[in-house]
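Hypothesis: this fold can be encoded by more than one sequence.
Test: take the structure tokens below, design a sequence, compare later.
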């Protein structure tokens, strides 16, 4: 037998066992303050925040304890103090949620076992979604935390994501307004346990495992490194290909590239191509096929596959030239902060016939037609991601 529960216009199907757990959970939250100290704490809070809340024998509303014993505004002898009587219960139903929010330390003991003993993704999604609605009668952040921490595998996480309608961690984070350590850290720690690649302290190329550029785009959105529909230049190392796209399905520009002959890495002076998330920090535009030296126009024009030698200030001879234009790059991760100072950038080349293979000194060579298109279609701060082979 199944029950249908409607939540936020979406339908979740739960079993009899799950329904029983939910009903038990509500029963627990409706009578959260069972012990005498908890009841007294709530009654004291009512006296302070909602004075005149309890009806006395003379029919007038007064405080329970505030004021001297002979105070006309005080309940006779403080009768009922520490007792969850009809008046207290009525006030709890009305102000219990407000009290819980301002007294979170009194609400840290939750029946986690009811979640931990139930692996149903639907049930977990239900608790998280209902927590956001704030109708559990208790601290919503702690309830969502309890549900989140009951996710024990990536498989269950994916199923919860399906029933919730979005990433569970991002959903919870959107309404967690408390800064209490016991809330924030366990949720984050659980998330990092399941998805270590999302750890901000880890350089993303070391942990991101993507099968193609489209898969990588989805991962970057999930990691919140880019927003959905953000334009991004992806340098896909395994096939030496550039993709310029603003979604995970269609690339508006595809072109072969040539990255560092020494491979990929972020160590200075090793002529490797930087990896990870970067941004376009500057644009330098020359004439078509014009040679640029030190990012400066020289007026010299070459063809796409014409060699030309020059001697730099150190007396070194150069054959591969920088042509047409440059997209300067700055690193956005700790591992690639040195990209700009290493002079790693995207540029046109007179070595178009070697595109599709690792031949550069660390820069990302593209065809002169491609660099012209990128200069016209991208703006400063456009994201760039280099995925190594």
């Amino acid at each position: 037998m199944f029950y249908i529960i409607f939540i936020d216009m979406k339908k979740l199907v739960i079993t009899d066992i799950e329904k029983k757990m939910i009903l038990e959970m509500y029963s627990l939250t409706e009578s959260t303050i069972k012990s005498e100290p908890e009841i007294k704490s709530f009654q004291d809070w009512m006296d302070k925040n909602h004075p005149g809340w309890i009806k006395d024998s003379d029919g007038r509303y007064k405080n329970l304890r505030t004021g001297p014993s002979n105070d006309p505004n005080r309940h006779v002898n403080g009768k009922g103090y520490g007792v969850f009587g009809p008046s207290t219960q009525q006030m709890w139903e009305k102000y219990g949620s407000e009290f819980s929010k301002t007294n979170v330390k009194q609400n840290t003991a939750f029946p986690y076992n009811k979640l931990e003993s139930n692996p149903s993704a639907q049930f977990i999604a239900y608790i998280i979604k209902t927590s956001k609605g704030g109708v559990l009668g208790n601290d919503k952040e702690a309830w969502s935390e309890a549900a989140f921490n009951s996710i024990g595998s990536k498989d269950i996480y994916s199923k919860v994501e399906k029933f919730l309608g979005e990433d569970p961690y991002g959903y919870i984070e959107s309404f967690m307004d408390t800064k209490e350590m016991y809330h924030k850290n366990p949720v984050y720690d659980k998330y990092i346990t399941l998805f270590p690649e999302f750890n901000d302290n880890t350089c993303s190329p070391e942990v991101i495992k993507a099968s193609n550029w489209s898969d990588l785009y989805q991962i970057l959105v999930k990691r919140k490194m880019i927003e959905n529909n953000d334009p991004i230049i992806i340098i896909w190392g395994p096939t030496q290909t550039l993709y310029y796209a603003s979604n995970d399905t269609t690339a508006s520009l595809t072109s072969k590239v040539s990255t560092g002959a020494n491979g990929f890495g972020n160590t200075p002076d090793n002529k490797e191509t930087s990896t990870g998330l970067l941004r376009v920090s500057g644009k330098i535009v020359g004439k078509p096929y014009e040679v640029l030296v030190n990012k400066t126009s020289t007026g010299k024009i070459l063809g796409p596959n014409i060699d030309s030698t020059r001697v730099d200030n150190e007396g070194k001879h150069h054959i591969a030239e920088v042509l047409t234009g440059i997209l300067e790059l700055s690193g956005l991760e700790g591992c690639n902060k040195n990209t700009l100072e290493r002079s790693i950038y995207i540029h046109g080349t007179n070595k178009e016939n070697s595109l599709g293979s690792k031949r550069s000194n660390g820069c990302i060579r593209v065809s002169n037609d491609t660099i012209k298109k990128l200069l016209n279609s991208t703006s400063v701060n456009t994201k760039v991601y280099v995925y190594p082979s």
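The mean pLDDT is 82. The chain is about 30% helix and 20% strand.
Hypothesis status: open.
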